[in-house]
């Protein structure tokens, strides 16, 4: 088979496609997923690493394309994932390291990358119960913060993350990387402030908003009786008044030292582990 035919010829189901050229149209489409526009249009995203891809498939996420580096060829786990991808009607590409670097924008890329369909939870389907904790993020901007929060919410046993207003994309390369796989485990919903406030009334959740002017020490709040939504503010502006007014409590984490505030992801982590303190034990996680 000529190089040209191999790279551009028709794809047959169940057949691995070998690609070495950055000009290959499929590679171009996958590379474009580094841009939000392409992710929005295709409603897909990239997840890097064999473990992540296996976890995602186990959790029922739909894979469109599996890409692996030549060096990973023949590894039993890679073969298994390739077979599962074919079984779901997906595409499998074997690529050069150069192509892998271009897709992941890294010098030392992972051996395996999956293109998955995006998935959002919808607020109207979330009916929180007592003992459940949600994190609502007002206009979160930083991809690293969002990824870290999704990962930490997962680790603390929270039930979901709700993105309010115009936020950074949970499916960007940087955010997905920072979640370390938790993006596949933690439901993420998007909502306007209006819809969020209506939902909260409807389901009877307690909103604990964190605020630098909060009068309540976050350690004195009862997180046990109702489902709790921890509301966190934008990195620059904090929580706007219209949201702060709706909170059941305005909580503050006491600080010492010169820093004006904590990083958003750190503050969220502190709140999550306090709100779920009564539900977490070393025995349960052993
Ligand atoms: N300049 C912003 C302000 O005035 O609110 C700072 C925002 S801070 C970097 C980002 C978010 O982290 C805050 O909106 C709040 O949700 C949370 N946060 C940070 N430090 C906090 C603290 N000491 N107590 C409560 N929340 C805090």
Automatic annotation (TrEMBL):
Keywords: Methyltransferase, Transferase. It holds the Pfam family SpoU_methylase. GO terms for molecular function: RNA binding; RNA methyltransferase activity. Residues 46-122 form the RNA 2-O ribose methyltransferase substrate binding domain. InterPro entries: Alpha/beta_knot_MTases, MRM3-like_sub_bind, Ribosomal_eL30-like_sf, rRNA_Methyltransferase, SpoU_MeTrfase, SpoU_subst-bd, tRNA_m1G_MTases_N. GO terms for biological process: methylation; RNA processing. This is TrmH family RNA methyltransferase.
């Amino acid at each position: 088979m000529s190089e040209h035919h191999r790279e551009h010829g028709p794809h047959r189901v169940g057949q691995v496609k070998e690609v070495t050229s950055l000009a290959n149209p499929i590679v171009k489409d996958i590379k474009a997923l580094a841009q939000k526009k392409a992710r929005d249009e295709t409603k897909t995203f990239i997840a890097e690493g064999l473990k992540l891809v296996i976890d995602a498939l186990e959790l029922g996420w739909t894979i469109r394309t599996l890409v692996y580096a030549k060096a990973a060829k023949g590894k039993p786990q890679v073969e298994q994932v390739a077979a599962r991808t074919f079984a779901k009607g997906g595409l499998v590409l074997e690529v050069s390291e150069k192509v892998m670097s271009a897709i992941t924008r890294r010098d030392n890329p992972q051996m395996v990358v999956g293109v998955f369909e995006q998935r959002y939870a919808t607020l109207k389907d979330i009916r929180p119960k007592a003992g459940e904790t949600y994190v609502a993020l007002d206009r979160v901007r930083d991809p690293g913060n969002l990824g870290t929060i999704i990962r930490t919410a997962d680790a603390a046993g929270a039930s979901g993350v709700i993105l309010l207003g115009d936020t950074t994309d949970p499916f960007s390369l940087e955010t997905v990387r920072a979640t370390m796989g938790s993006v596949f485990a933690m439901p993420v919903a998007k909502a306007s402030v209006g819809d969020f406030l209506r939902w909260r009334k409807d389901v009877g959740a307690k909103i604990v908003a964190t605020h630098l002017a909060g009068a309540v020490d976050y350690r004195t709040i009862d997180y046990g009786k109702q489902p709790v939504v921890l509301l966190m503010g934008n990195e620059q502006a904090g929580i706007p008044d219209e949201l702060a007014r709706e909170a059941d409590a305005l909580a503050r984490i006491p600080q010492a030292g010169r820093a004006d505030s904590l990083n958003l992801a750190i503050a969220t982590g502190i709140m999550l582990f306090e709100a779920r303190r009564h539900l977490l034990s070393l025995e349960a996680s052993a």
